[in-house]
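Our preliminary data section would be incomplete without showing what the modeling component actually yields. Below, a chain of 360 amino acids is followed by its predicted structure, encoded as tokens that our downstream tools consume directly.
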Amino acid sequence: MRVFNFSSGPAALPLEVLEQARAELTDWGGSGMSVMEVSHRGKAFTALAAETEARLRALLSIPSAYRVLFLQGGATGQFAAVPLNLARRGAVADYLNTGMWSARAIEEAGRLAVAVHVAADQADSKYTTVPAPQALRLTPQAAYVHYTPNETIGGVEFPYVPDSGAVPLVADMSSTLLSRPIEVSRFGLIYAGAQKNIGPSGLCVVIVHEGLLGRAREDTPAVLDYTRMAAHGSMLNTPPTFAWYIAGLVLKWIEAQGGLTAMAARNRAKAELLYGLIDASGLYRNPVERSCRSWMNVPFTLARPELEPLFLREADAAGLTHLQGHRSVGGLRASLYNAVPHAAVEALVAFMREFERRHG
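Predicted structure:
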């Protein structure tokens, strides 16, 4: 029996996608082989790759001046790739620090001889807020401005896109890409680990403006060099073909659901349902300022922390899985990515309400 999976990543995939992949697992497209067995340079797979990129471009309305790359190394790999491609040694790069993942990006850029300028740091709020637009201390001549629109662990989300002026804006959209429409032209570069809303782990999508290509340092590893990867259609080396294939099925599924406008309505409704229960409760609490609560990741705590192990055991027994908070912060967390159905949130809310009745 399928459970309701609230994992933060690798996260739930649409059941329809899993069923199609199962049906095609041993014989993909009449080839007599699995998609995992065909050559990535063969006509069948290159056609799949081109179709997947076209679907992503259509869903996100990606302008023609942007290149789309399907890379390996996850978002963490991009913590290094971004400075290696966009900043010479010693150059200043602005970073907004709103939690663990932006902090990891800051640390990696510093290791690669970038003069990191933290243009906003939400440590004083224990990363339960995002900076106000007027509070950003941006550097006019920075190589780029980097931020994390949604912090998966802390559950904070920017309600606005920072205005970086003429400086390229770089966004780690691992938790939010494809959850709603975005205006790609406002960004110089977007990257996202696939294992939230795109597909399985092992794949990272990069959307980069052509004007930012050709800037990589001479010692940049080939697999991290955007220009070289773009020139080879993301196939300088063997790509994660199965993850790419699943991503294509997920994109088809999103189209069938009504596209990103429909996804946004669904995701907003799921988040509002769960936050509504938490806010009306005497047992549950969400620590994030209401103006910047995440649609995708909802952390919460219990007024009686000693009940958390019991909550998790009973939730798991009820088919509500992966509700434990990140090991760095503890507590509880429900991730509500695209493939998590509204029925899952309804079941979670009903469970939480009954748990509070018995233990509150």
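The CA atoms of residues 203 and 244 lie 7 Å apart. The two ends are 30 Å apart (CA to CA). Preliminary results of this kind motivate Aim 1 of the renewal.
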